[in-house]
Amino acid sequence: MRFTWGSATDVGRVRTNNQDSFLTEPAVWAVADGMGGHRGGEVASRTAIEAVRAAVASGLAVNEAITRANAAVRERASGDTELTGMATTMTAVVVGGGQELLIGHFGDSRAYMLHNGVLRRITDDHSLVEELVREGRLTAEQAESHPQRHVVTRGLGVDNDVEVDLYTIEVIPGDRVVICSDGLTTMVRERDIERIVRSEPDPQRAAEALVDAANRAGGEDNTSIVVVDVVEVDPIEVVVPETPAPTEAIVAETAAAPAAATAVPGHRPAMRPAPEPPAPPPPRTTASWGSRIRGTLLLFVPLILVLAIAVGGIGFYARRSYYVGFSGNRVVIYKGVPGGVLGWDPTLEQRTALTAGQLTQIDRQRVAAGSGRGSLSNAHDFVSNLQAHVNATSTTTTTTTKPRPTTTRPRTAPVTTP
Ligand code: MG
C-alpha cells in the first residue's frame, strides 16, 4: 500500500500549553490528547505516542500497542507527584493488509474516513456526552454544544486494565482518513469538517485548514490533525512461499564457508568445496613409505581438528535456534536456521493452527522470511502475535456499514507437535 499524509497541531486561542501529541510514520499514524496537571498531559500523550510507535515497530497489533502505552503512562507517572493522575487518549491507525487499515481507539480523539466524497466517523467517543447520546438522553445536536463535551470517560494511564476499541476498514485509492483531537470536534461541526476534508486535495493543507477552522471558531482547546491519503492498495493474493523440506536427517556434508548462515530461506546456498589440503612435501628419497604416511597424517591432524570444532560449533548453533515459517500453507515452528547451515537442515518442531490465508500480507511476508528467530519462546511469542492479528481482523467488520468496535485480547495460538 502507498500513502501520503500531512499533520498540524496548535495550542489554540485559550490554553497556554499544547498537551496533544501525534505520530506520522510510513505505516502508523496516531493522535493523543493528554490530560492532567501543568505538564502531566503533555508527558502522558508524548509517552503514549512513543510507546505505540515502539510497540507497532516490534510487530505488536495496534490494540496491544495501546495496552503497552497504558502501562508506559502509568510507569512514567509512578513516583513523580507532578505527574500523578496524568492520562491521555489514543487513536492510532496502522496498515493491516493489502486493503485494510486497523484503528485502535481509546478516549475521545476521533478517526474519520472520507470515501466517495462522504465523511463518516469510524470511532465512538468514550465521553460523557456520547454516552448520553447513545442512551437517548441527548441529541447529537445537543451534544455538539454541551458544556461537558470535554469530559472523557476513558484515558490511558488511569487503570491497570484497558479495553481498546478496534476497527477494521477497507480502503481504496482516493480514500482519506482523518485523525483528530477533540479540539477540532468540539469547535467545528461535522458538516464543516467534511467540507474542508473534501475540498482540499493536499493532505498537509487539509490538516492546516482544519486547525485554522478550530481556531476561527474560538480555539478553546489544543487541536491536532493527521490526514492520511490512500494512494495505492495491494492486490489480493495469498503467497505460499517455497519452504525448505523438513527432515530429521542430520547429514554432515562438507566444510563449506559460513556463507550458508546468511542463506535466503527456501534456497539452499551452493556449498563451496572444502579448501584443497596443502600438497605434501616432496618425498625424501631416503624415507620409507611408512614414515611418509605417518608424516602426512601428522600434518593433517591439526587441520582436521580445527575443521571438526568449527563444524561442531556451527551445528550446535544451527540446532539450538528456532524460527517461524511455512510448511505448505501452514504456519509452523522450525528448529534450525532458515535455509539450513552446513547440511543441518531445519526440522519441523511444532505445527500451529494458523494458515497463510488467515494472515495479513505483512505477516505472510514476515513468516516467509523466517521470523521469530532465537529461542523456542521467541518463536511462540511471534506466533501469539500472529494469532492476535488474526483475532483482531476476524472479529471486526468492514466499512460497508459503520464498524462496531470490538475489544480484543490476544490469545495464544494453540500449538501441537507434528
Ligand atoms: Mg483536547
Annotate the secondary structure layout.
Layout lengths: L1 E9 L9 E6 L2 E8 L4 H18 L4 H16 L9 E2 L1 E6 L4 E7 L3 E6 L2 E4 L6 H7 L5 H5 L20 E6 L5 E5 L1 H4 L4 H10 L3 H14 L6 E10 L56 H32 L1 E6 L2 E6 L11 E9 L5 H8 L2 E4 L1 H19 L11 E2 L7 E2 L2
Antiparallel strand pairs: 1-11, 2-3, 3-4, 3-5, 5-6, 6-9, 7-8, 7-10, 9-16, 10-11, 12-13, 12-15, 13-14, 14-17
Helix pairs in contact: 1-2, 6-7
The structure holds magnesium ion.
Keywords summarizing the entry:
418 residues, alpha+beta, Phosphatase 2c, domain 1, five-stranded antiparallel beta sheet
Model description:
There is one protein chain. The protein has two domains: 2-235, Phosphatase 2c, domain 1; 318-394, 2-Layer Sandwich (Alpha-Beta Plaits), CATH 3.30.70. The protein is α+β, with helices and mostly antiparallel strands and 418 residues long. The chain is elongated, with a radius of gyration of 29 Å. The chain is 32% helix and 23% strand. The protein is built from ten helices and 17 strands. The structure holds magnesium ion. Magnesium ion (MG) binds next to helix 5.
